[in-house]
Design brief:
The structure holds 2 protein chains of 2 kinds. Chain A is built from 27 helices and 4 strands. By secondary structure, chain A is mainly alpha-helical. A two-stranded antiparallel ribbon of chain B has the order 1-2. Chain B is globular and about 70 Å long. Classes of the chains: A mainly alpha, B mainly alpha.
């Protein structure tokens, strides 16, 4: 069994190494063959694993591959924990990754770094698999940082572009701020549990509920709260939660397939997965849950507002800037882990679909990304059109699509929760529904409908993208349609995650919802009559009215809310603040420390000063050496007298 | 090992004689034969050092491969050698680094190359001597002797300000050495022996312990170097030729921290316990303050030099957290992570800083500039080199999967057990280390081709590829599987920890 599981991350890794080291030798075809083969193997084996564990209720696997090191009696292992949660994540990750790989053949066809790109995305898949399959905190941290590394490489893929190499550095450092908290969280786990192994830690966790730690003064803080919040700081970095969301917008500097990988399928889901994995810990601290809930809500709310106004300015297709992970996070905070993972899954499908659809449009437009030059593409690109429509409908939660079921479950779960901050969170989700519908359909209308604004030359060459692009689109469109219907029963209310996710009786909102659950159709009807659906429809209508029918309205609105608008365009000034305060501040501080501390204080005064004073004293001492015998004799006598006196006094 | 074969002596004297041989060959013969002689000697010494690992008994803390002969009977001075799990990895690191340094000086050193090679070989022997010596006087002789070749390397083959740098290096370390000698003589008076293991057992009062502590601290802190006696290092690195920088960073700095483990902790444990806040404070300042100072550098070598100081802060921090843990819990559980982490960090830093200095050397050989702003877009013309540079930069930021992660991870986990705030400040390296390293990479490696000279750069030749490639393999290997290194340390580290928490008063 272990061999099979080991193959899953190793296959993409081997592909990545071959494509990376021998890219020039094996050529383009060789590079994409070997990486796609690797990821395909991982996908097939993940499917087998999923069926074995999830469908046929196989045993959960928890085993060590090798012992990384033993120090101080603590064993640090590399090993796998494969339960239903992991199995589901593995399938989602490898499936989306496989689609992205195939799609990349078409998208990167003209790029010089073709082999390098395949090597990176296969490495990404490996890192993500190591992350979700880990059975201990050390390996989790490895996967955690490894996806950070590959995203650094991918965002800066076009390393000649100044904006790209700025963005990747920013992404890495901001993620490191999160990892800083994460690492301290792991250190806390090790200190209180004496192990970094999930099984040991989760088993011992209930006994630690009342332990306290002293960090500042005499205040006693709950150990579980401290651990959970520290770990969540890591998730805030990876999942781009406020205030660590700032790296995500810039991460669009990389090629489009990366956006699908980073945003939809892998990296940003790491945070959500981590919270679900750690549910036995989070359930022990209501404070931490509320923290998660509120951070998620703030992210969703502020980014939602940003969406309404800034989105209307966005001219580049597929350059989605908003972090949509707020909602999932507050679902986690509301202890509806299953709903969060469910949405993570459906979201992975349709978000990847949307990014890849946008990429398909970009290919047709010869890498021109300005939507002012598009319009009316429906008749040229039917497959891209229909799949994008499915993606957009799923995104806004149109009844029947995958997004509908998962999103509705989230809204219900937050509504049912009694934790501090849950009402605020609920309002934020509803606002989000409207905003999402508004801007995603604005984009959709401007690209596929209306007048054709491209120049004649481009128009002449417009055609549907090649098969390597459209087949992944279709493959992603299918689950975007049906995954919800299939998944809602077993995943949410069927106790699918039993044993993998732990929920305390007191905040088990999903069980409460489950009592009212009457089947897919009941859920469908219930949702269609609800407020979220009306809000989504209102959003689509507004998009159509403002951008298709009365384009002048947009400018009027913008003019009226000038000041507010400016604030939003500057993204609440987060970037500026960070640039000035953190980046600029530390550079300034660094300069001062170097010039005043090292150069002036230590070298100037202490070191060279010592040298100078030695020289000065030596000069003086030289004067004493007069060369006259009686001076020396006099000095000797004085010295003798002093010594004799000293001996007499000391007895 | 009772085999009686004087392996350690061989590792000390073979390179020294090899150095003399190289000089002799170089005097009359061809340059090529001389270079090959030097390389041959260094490779043979490296191969000879491997049995230290394969034949090492991990079960015992006792000194192994021991040799003992009377040297100056009047003062009870012995030629006494032996190694344990703390010194053994450092010797292999030394013999390995010397091979790389000889290779690195293959073409670029044109002036008096036989002397250059000889200096490194002789220094290798002396450095091995430092790590093997179990007698205080012998240790001191090697310790001082080692300064001379380094002084010459900086002073002869260094940059424009080499005289200033060489003198600063010499005076700084010499000042420390004098205090070391005083402390050793005091200990001899107490124990009538110069055996370092006898020093470990010597009962010393608190006042004397405190004085000895400061004497040792100054001697070793200069070498590490710790803040605030670190300013000689950036100057020395900047002026030293590439090989000098590599040895300085990879081995010489470790002498200082080795002194902490071999002298300060076991000889004056009570003073160490009493003054642990001082060392921890200096270590944390090194980690935070020096990392910030690194951010301000525009000279690549200076930047890496400062980065070295910050990383060495983890070593001294790891050594000293044991006392706070012992005070809080009454046992040393968790401190082992700190000490072993520190030792791993010493080896790993040897690889990574050596590799980074070699990378700068590769660029300097082509462009004759160390200024960051003379570069930009090197990845366009040197893609293979750029891959290595990014790998070592990532290792320098402590990325899991590379050796840079292992030591820092262990020290941070260990220091959390001593105090949340120690771990908090130490973990800032995740952010600051990434900031200065990646900013360097961004400005040098990425971007459009900076200027015509960058456009004309040639990628790595075979020799450079082998050097950087072998380091890359080691950095990754140690990151993926540190157990083989950590396992040899357990017995010695556990013994050390037991020893330091037992009061000598």
């Amino acid at each position: 069994m272990k061999g099979l599981y080991l193959m899953i991350p190793m296959a993409p890794l081997i592909g990545s190494i071959i494509a990376g080291l021998f890219g020039r030798k094996i050529g383009r075809t060789g590079a994409h063959t070997v990486t796609i083969a690797g990821v395909a193997v991982a996908f097939v084996l993940s499917l087998i694993t999923f069926f074995k564990i999830a469908v046929f209720d196989g045993e959960t696997f928890n085993g060590v591959v090798y012992t990384w090191m033993i120090s101080d009696g603590i064993s640090f292992d590399v090993g796998f924990l494969i339960d239903k949660l992991t199995a589901l994540m593995m399938v989602v990750v490898t499936f989306v990754s496989l689609m992205v790989h195939i799609y990349t053949i078409g998208y990167m066809a003209d790029d010089d770094g073709y082999q390098r790109f395949f090597s990176y995305i296969a490495l990404f898949t490996f890192s993500m698999l190591m992350l979700v399959m880990a059975n201990n905190f050390m390996q989790l941290f490895f996967g955690w940082e490894a996806v950070g590394l590959v995203s650094y490489l991918l965002i800066g893929f076009w390393f000649k572009k100044e904006s790209a190499i700025y963005a990747n550095m920013k992404a890495f450092i901001v993620n490191r701020v999160g990892d800083f908290g994460f690492l301290l969280g792991i250190a806390a786990v090790l200190m209180y549990f004496g192990s970094v192994d999930y099984a040991d830690v989760f088993a011992a966790a209930p006994h630690m509920k009342d332990m306290t730690i002293q960090i500042w003064g005499d205040q006693q803080w709950s150990v579980m709260t401290v651990i959970c919040i520290l770990l969540f700081i890591g998730a805030m970095g990876k999942s781009a939660q406020a205030p660590l969301h700032v790296w995500l917008p810039d991460s669009m500097e990389g090629p489009t397939p990366i956006s699908a990988l980073i945003h939809a399928a892998t990296m940003v889901t790491a945070g959500i997965f981590m919270v679900a994995r750690m549910s036995p810990l989070y359930e022990l601290s209501e404070t931490a849950l509320s923290f998660v809930l509120v951070i998620g809500a703030i992210t969703a709310f502020s980014m939602g507002l940003l969406g309404v106004f800034v989105r209307s300015e966005e001219r580049r297709v597929g350059k989605e800037r908003r972090s949509r992970w707020g909602p999932i996070h507050y679902t986690m905070g509301a202890s509806a882990y299953a709903a969060g993972i469910f949405h993570l899954m459906t979201h992975a499908f349709f978000k990847a679909l949307l990014f890849l659809g946008a990429g398909s449009v970009i290919i047709a437009m010869h890498h021109d990304q300005d939507i002012r030059n598009m319009g009316g593409l429906k008749k040229y690109m039917p497959i891209t059109y229909w799949t994008s429509l499915i993606g957009s409908l799923a995104l806004i939660g149109f009844p029947g699509t995958a997004g509908f079921f998962s999103k509705d479950a989230i809204i219900e779960a937050v509504w049912e929760s009694h934790l501090a901050g849950s009402t605020f969170a609920w309002i934020c989700v509803l606002l989000g529904v409207f905003v999402t519908a508004l801007y995603s359909f604005r984009m959709f209308f401007l690209v596929f409908h209306g007048e054709e604004r491209m120049d004649e030359h481009t128009k002449h060459h417009l055609k549907e993208s090649p098969k390597v692009v459209t087949i992944p689109l279709i493959c992603l469109a299918i689950p975007s349609l049906v995954a919800g219907m299939i998944g809602v029963g077993p995943l949410l209310f069927g106790g699918f995650f039993e044993g993998a996710i732990h929920v305390d009786e007191a905040h088990n909102v999903l069980e409460h919802m489950g009592e009212e659950y009457t089947g897919v159709f009941g859920f469908l009807i219930h949702g269609t009559l609800g407020l979220p659906f009306l809000l989504a429809m209102a959003g689509i209508y507004t998009a159509w009215h403002v951008y298709m029918k009365r384009p002048d309205l947009a400018d009027q609105i913008k003019a009226r809310f000038r000041g507010f608008y400016d604030l939003l365009v500057r993204k609440y000034g987060f970037d500026e603040f960070n640039d000035r305060f953190f980046a600029g501040g530390s550079r300034q501080l660094a300069k001062v420390l170097f010039e005043k501390g090292d150069a002036t204080m230590i070298d100037g005064i202490m070191v060279n000063g010592t040298a100078k004073s030695v020289g000065w004293i030596a000069g003086k001492v030289r004067n004493i050496q007069t060369g006259m015998l009686y001076h020396y004799a006099f000095a000797m006598i004085v010295g003798m007298l002093l010594l004799v006196t000293l001996f007499v006094l000391m007895g | 090992m009772a085999s009686g074969f004087p392996l350690l002596s061989l590792l000390i004297w073979l390179p020294i004689f090899g150095g003399v041989l190289t000089l002799a060959v170089g005097k009359g013969g061809s340059r090529d034969i001389m270079r090959k002689t030097a390389l041959g000697v260094s490779v043979v010494v490296f191969i000879l050092s491997l049995p230290l690992y394969t034949g090492f008994d991990t079960e015992t803390f006792a000194m192994q491969f021991g040799e003992k002969a009377s040297w100056i009977p009047a003062f009870n001075v012995f030629y006494s050698l032996g190694i344990d799990g703390i010194s053994m990895p450092l010797i292999i690191l030394t013999t390995f680094s010397t091979v790389l340094v000889v290779l690195a000086g293959w073409e670029v050193i044109e002036d008096r190359q036989e002397q250059y090679m000889a200096a490194f070989l002789i220094m290798e022997g002396l450095m091995n001597g430092v790590f093997c010596a179990l007698d205080g006087v012998l240790f001191y002789v090697f310790w001082e002797g080692m300064l001379i070749p380094m002084f010459l390397i900086i002073g002869i083959w260094g940059g424009p300000r080499r005289i200033y740098a060489a003198l600063k290096f010499f005076l700084y370390t010499f000042l420390g050495s004098v205090l070391l000698l005083v402390a050793l003589i005091y200990l001899y008076n107490q124990t009538s022996s110069f055996n370092i293991l006898d020093f470990h057992m010597a009962k010393v009062g608190m006042t004397a312990q405190t004085l000895i502590f400061f004497a040792f601290l100054i001697a070793f802190a200069v070498k590490v170097p710790m803040w605030p006696v670190h300013t000689w290092l950036p100057d020395a690195h900047v002026e030293a030729p590439t090989g000098g920088s590599v040895i300085l960073a990879a081995i010489m700095l470790k002498m200082g921290t080795y002194g902490f483990a071999r002298f300060i902790l076991p000889i004056v444990p009570d003073a160490s316990a009493h003054l642990d806040w001082l060392v921890i404070g200096m270590s944390l300042i090194a980690i935070v303050y020096i990392a910030l100072v690194a951010l301000a550098q525009t000279d690549m070598k200076k930047l890496i030099a400062y980065s070295s100081i910050a990383h060495m802060g983890f070593v001294t921090l790891g050594f000293f957290i044991v006392f706070a843990i012992f005070r809080a819990t009454g046992n040393t559980h968790g401190a082992g992570l700190g000490v072993e982490g520190a030792l791993v960090q010493m080896v790993s830093h040897g690889f990574i800083s050596g590799a980074l200095f070699l990378c700068v050397g590769v660029m300097y050989d082509r462009m004759h500039s160390r200024n960051i702003y003379d570069y930009g877009g090197v990845a366009n013309t040197m893609p293979v080199f750029a891959s290595f540079m990014v790998l070592f930069a990532m290792a320098n930021t402590g990325l899991p999967g590379t050796s840079g992660f292992v030591g820092e991870f262990m020290v941070i986990l260990g220091s959390f057990q001593a105090s949340f705030w120690y771990a908090f400040l130490a973990a800032t390296t995740l952010i600051l280390g990434a900031a200065y390293t990646l900013w360097l990479v961004k400005r040098v490696i990425f971007g459009e081709v900076g200027n015509e000279r960058v456009a004309a750069l040639q990628d790595l030749n075979m020799r450079e590829f082998v050097i950087l490639g072998s380091l890359a393999v080691l950095v990754l290997l140690l990151g993926i599987w540190p157990a083989p290194l950590v396992d040899v340390m357990h017995a010695s580290v556990n013994h050390l920890l037991e020893h330091v928490v037992t009061s000598k008063l």
